[in-house]
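Complex 328.
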Amino acid sequence: MEIKLTNFSSVSSGVTLPKKNVKLLIIGSGPAGLSAALYAARADLKPVVLTGTEMGGQVSLTYIVENYPGFPEGIGGAELIEKFKQQAEHFGAVFEFDSAVEVNLSKSPFYVRTYQNEYFAEAMIIATGASAVHLNVPGETELTGRGVSYCATCDGWFFKEKDVIVVGGGDSALEESLFLTRYAKSVTIIHRRDSLRAGAILKNRAAANPKIHFIMNSIVTNILGEDAVKSVKLKNVVNGEIFDHPTDGVFIFIGHTPNTQLFEGQLEMDDRKYIRINHLMQSSVPGVYVAGEAADPHFRQVITSAGMGAAAAMQAIHFLQDRVEISS
Ligand code: NAP
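Predicted structure with NAP bound:
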């Protein structure tokens, strides 16, 4: 049931929650949120970070990050996130393992209700990231967790010496396919076109890996199996041929969608629901900044999200300073 906010009190949830006034509330704990927390903490704002259900977001599920400067051998995604968090905590950022469930940005201080508290924030940084897009084919939902997965790092281990398919032709699909070859007997990449979207390095690595095979110009129309995935139905989009392909696992990496539903109707968004920001990370509401994949469908790198987080925090710091100067 959707709970509507009638006024700035805990009446809306029917439960009395503790009220907390904060200078800066950061929603999200991926590279964007954690970098924002570091910068804001160093400015003594004592930012509160709502981590959401997955501390670290998508990166924490990445086996190895090879393109974040400073780690020439690469670094595990979860380890990198832990380092980000420790650094922000060292300067006074406060982490709450909690999620925002309702916001009201129509007036200041901004209202955010979580499962545990009601926050009143003078400024806010939204760093809620993005989530994997689903194929939306029959069998996908029913067999998720029983052979269908969106995370090779989480589930690859279950497919030791098994045959799996990976759907998608971008960097994620190839990177995750390469990771899956550690466990799987074979990894077959199913791509809907005749050429891959992924960059040259990953393309070359995948092509050189004897465990990786390709089925091009094809889409998955059904995922089949009772208690576990047994096969997929594929359709060749060029000649229309439909055929069964036996497999033990289906890994889907076909892009992402921003986690911005909470802010719909309150912040300007583009037609794909990415929050619109200017070059200063400023949303359509003054004092509300956005960093990382909630506003960035394009770069989607740890370093770009972290950079946006730092920039958003610097702007939030200015915003709060200006308010103090105006009111004093
Ligand atoms: P992406 O680049 O958008 O690629 C999505 C892939 O899925 C495309 O090949 C697309 O096909 C395919 N696809 C989309 N919808 C589909 C559907 N309904 N059915 C079948 N196939 C579908 O997404 P991504 O791979 O997640 O990468 C996103 C961004 O993150 C990119 O900028 C990428 O460079 C970056 N990234 C970088 C790295 C790295 O540098 N190591 C790693 C991961 C991601 P089409 O090609 O036909 O559109």
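The longest helix spans residues 302-327.
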